[in-house]
Amino acid sequence: MKVGRKWSAVAAAGVLLGAGMASAAGEVPTTATSAAQMAVRMFPSGSSAVILCSGDPKSERSDLVAGQALAAYLSAPLLLTQSAGELGPNTRQSLSQLSVPDANPAGDEQPYQPAPGKPKVYLVGTTDSLSGSLVNQLQELGYAVQDLRTDSASALLSEVQNIVAPPLPSQADSPGFPGKWTTYAGDQAHNPFYPVPDSAPSWEKEGVMWNFPEKAAVPLSQEFPDLRQLGMRGAPVKMTQSLGNACGVTAVDGVIYAESDDAHLYALDAKTGQLLWQAGPTVNALMGNPIVGDGLVYVTAGDTGFSFSQVLKFMLSQGKMQLVRGLTYSAIYAYDQKTGRLVWRQDFQGNAMPTPALVDHAVYEATGDGHLYAFDSKAGKSLWKTDLGGFASMSSANYWRDPETGRVEIIVGVSDANNVVAVDAQTGKVLWKQPTTLNIFNTGMGDNTPTVDQENGLVFQDSVVDNDPKTNTVDLAIYAMDARTGKMVWSTKLGRGSSPPAYKAGVAMVHDGVVYVGSPATSRYYALDEKTGHVLWNFHFQNSGPAGAGRGSAVYAYDRLWVAAGPKVYALDPKTGKELGSYEPGGRFGIVNPVIVGKTMYLGNSYDWIQAIPLSKIDPTVQSSGA
């Protein structure tokens, strides 16, 4: 039977333990401690399940393909029977080794421990390859059995496909969600709040709560990463941008899309947290927001490294030779929005960590090789590329549409030299560059994403400045520029603090004449007058840790600011900065930008989890504030 590309890709991720391979499950644990630890390793999803397929060489290949797909979806091991009607001694031994211990030793609780007892066994195959007697054998041994046997191979694939790739929610069932996601953090102003209509279902109006672990998930209550192993600098760097969901999630038509450093893209049901599909692995880590539009989901893969040869050339040329960021492979991917099937891909020389922008059926990506690229959104055909005069580190493209001419400017920050650059979306022509006037430090303007006020024609960007190597302190400056000309309108320094270890800036959000931005140097969040740059108030994040806090943008919703920083999510009074409520959902947050639809906050964290939190968990008074 011919196996489609979709099935082949999913099946390749399966875990296979065949007959005669019982030792692959690990040695029989001799203590409750080792048994508990092994159970966590074998069942990373927290749900103990085993997939059982026929080991008969005469069985259909499609049986194994279906079994591998289900094993990948459930993060479960796959075992083979000895024959169509007999488990066989090796499979029995493997099953016994996969039982979860009844109790953990005192003081050694596993925070993400699967339920104790024997795993649930899924029988996957046709009735010809797997006899009904296997159900009796398993039940006699005390296993719960999910019988997925069918009369034909095609029916079996359909049965498993309904589990591993359920249909996406319909737009009618999720009326509060946006129909597309075109820029980093959802819109030009970086304020992804989507109120729901009165006709919306109750789960949207009241909020839902769930946690979904991705492939590299770490227990939410665990102290992580280990400073002793990674060092006082290495651990904060990884926590800030190299682990889990660096920048947060995307919400479109009742589906939550999220990228991960595990090189996979996930699509989840926003109501239940159920996995709808996953795609990958990609050539490198994914660190941005998925962009959704034109029936596709766009993600970019890259890394933060510099090769020694690149740094040497840069130094020998005294900065005249352009520095390229990115050690290994980088690419942009376009996946089918409904199925996760790869539609097209383009590769780059430099890193592709920034989130692309989707404007008028074209995708724009700034990379570590110092160029801005434009591609046809549906076919992936290259439209043009433009030299920016410096590399984009984590600066995702934003845009401004001139209300008088209709011309679209793609706006991005670059490092070496530290400029904000505007490029004509149609032609690739550089329209203006704004060289910053303050003493920019490190990757500067290329480390952060510009924020655009479309109505007032302003662009906001911030960067660390005035580095003092003796005290290892910096300041953070935020700039306002005219979107049409690039002319500087104002600049404000927010205060000195310890030099952040990575992603040294904060993503700004603008709403109703006020700019909100955090500084990881001071671990404070600030409100500034949009016209003057005058600081209105600031709020200090507690327990920010050695990495500092305040990188992600806030969301303005229900007359509150909602922001994730350190181990908490906060609700702040937007007029005074007073804390109205907070909640610790587990794990920690890096550059995360929360998304609010109705009364639910969706976000990801550095522990590789995707989370849905009712706003009432953060501030109980929000339920009485109306929609």
TrEMBL record:
Residues 1-24 form the signal peptide. Gene3D superfamilies: YVTN repeat-like/Quinoprotein amine dehydrogenase. It comes from the Bacteria. Residues 85-120 are annotated as: Disordered. Residues 248-306, 328-460, 478-584 form the Pyrrolo-quinoline quinone repeat domain. Keywords: Signal. SUPFAM superfamilies: Quinoprotein alcohol dehydrogenase-like. Residues 90-99 have a biased composition (Polar residues). This is Pyrrolo-quinoline quinone repeat domain-containing protein. It comes from Kyrpidia spormannii.
